[in-house]
């Protein structure tokens, strides 16, 4: 598979009531096809959120959107455009970061959480200088992060609850 320069196709998800922002690195091929966050069926993000809030796992994009906004969670990615091979974070180069000011100015976001090491490292390099908001690194919900079971992810990700409940 060849490297491609891709512009992020998914708009940020947020409303005025959002209190936290969860950032990924860049949408996977499956997410770009679905035009929504964490679109790969093996990604545990939506199962994890449902578990944290004791709700059924959302299936449709509308259910996912509603779950996120009902619990005041904004979502986007660190990267606006980049050169990438497939969905591989390790192949990312030529990064242009997203401008988070729209979300930060039009919501109540007080805390930024990064879904995995790649998003955390990219956030610190490209966005932290602009926002001044330190991010919290959480373990990736990607199926590639096999070291973390859903139970173990839930234990780590429970940290988001103190900011939104």
Q: What would you say this structure looks like, in words?
A:
The chain has 165 residues and is an alpha/beta fold. The protein has a single domain, classed as 3-Layer(aba) Sandwich (Uracil-DNA Glycosylase, subunit E). 33% of the residues lie in helices and 22% in strands. The chain has 8 helices and 7 strands. The strands form 2 sheets. The chain has a 4-stranded parallel beta sheet with strand order 3-2-6-7. A 3-stranded antiparallel beta sheet has the order 1-4-5, with helices on one face. Strand 4 and strand 5 form a beta hairpin. Helix 2 crosses helix 7. It is globular and about 40 Å long. The N and C termini lie far apart (44 Å). The model has no long low-confidence stretch (mean pLDDT 95).
* CATH fold descriptor: Uracil-DNA Glycosylase, subunit E
Percent in helix? 25-40%
The largest sheet, given as strand count, sense and whether it forms a barrel, is: 4 strands, parallel
Taking pLDDT < 50 over at least 5 consecutive residues as the criterion, the unreliable ranges are: none
Question: How many DSSP H or I helices?
Answer: 8
Through-space gap between termini:
44 Å
CATH level-two architecture: 3-Layer(aba) Sandwich
Tell me the strand order in the biggest sheet: 3-2-6-7
Specify the structural class.
Answer: alpha/beta
State the shape.
Answer: globular
Strand content: 15-25%
> What letter string, H or E per element, gives the SSE order?
EEHHHEEEHEHHEHH
């Amino acid at each position: 598979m060849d490297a491609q320069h891709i512009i992020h196709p998914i708009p940020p998800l947020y409303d005025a009531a959002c209190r936290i922002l969860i950032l990924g690195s860049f949408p996977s091929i499956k997410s770009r096809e679905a035009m929504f966050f964490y679109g790969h069926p093996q990604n545990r993000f939506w199962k994890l959120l449902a578990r944290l809030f004791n709700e059924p796992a959302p299936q449709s994009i509308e259910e996912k959107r509603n779950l996120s906004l009902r619990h005041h969670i904004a979502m986007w990615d660190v990267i606006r455009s980049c050169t990438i091979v497939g969905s591989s974070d390790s192949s990312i180069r030529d990064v242009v970061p997203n401008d988070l000011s729209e979300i930060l100015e039009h919501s109540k976001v007080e805390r930024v959480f990064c879904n995995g090491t790649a998003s955390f490292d990219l956030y610190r390099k490209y966005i932290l200088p602009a926002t001044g908001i330190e991010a919290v690194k959480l373990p990736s919900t990607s199926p590639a992060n096999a070291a973390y079971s859903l139970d173990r992810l839930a234990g780590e990700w429970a940290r988001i609850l103190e900011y939104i409940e």
